[in-house]
Amino acid sequence: MQPRGRPKKYRIVRLDPKIAQFSPRGRPGRPDELDLSMDEFEALRLADYMGLPQKKAGKSMRISQQTFSRILKKAHKNIAYGLIHGNTIKIQGGHYVISSREEKLQSNTPKQA
Q: What's the pLDDT band for 69 if we cut at 50, 70, 90?
């Protein structure tokens, strides 16, 4: 049976995380795991770490601003849930392609001759 609906576009991820798992200290036993997808990680990196506006960050990932906003909101919710409940957070999965090619984003500044 074929999946229904529109096929998902691949998200462009520019940085492979150096660390793929965070676990809490001070919690005995094995805490529950929470998955943070690579596209959620990239959205957090672009918006919160680099401070890019959502429109530019969406262009960088080759998705719309609305889709970027949805991914970012889900990432914030997952991180907050993991921190509050003391879960291990694993960065893995998602629908993405890692690209090191830097894409010039259009700016409104005129070029100097």
A: very high
**Cα separation, 37 vs 40, whole angstroms:** 5
Q: Is residue 17 part of a domain?
A: yes
Q: Is residue 113 part of a domain?
A: no
**Owning domain of residue 84:** 11-98
pTM above 0.85, yes or no: no
Instruction: Give tens-digit pLDDT for 14-45.
Output: 877 888 888 888 766 677 899 999 999 999 99
What does the DSSP assignment read for 11-75?
Answer: EEE----S--EE--SS--S-PPEEEE-HHHHHHHIIIIIS---HHHHHHHHTS-HHHHHHHHHHH
Q: Is residue 4 part of a domain?
A: no
Identify whether 19 is part of a domain. yes
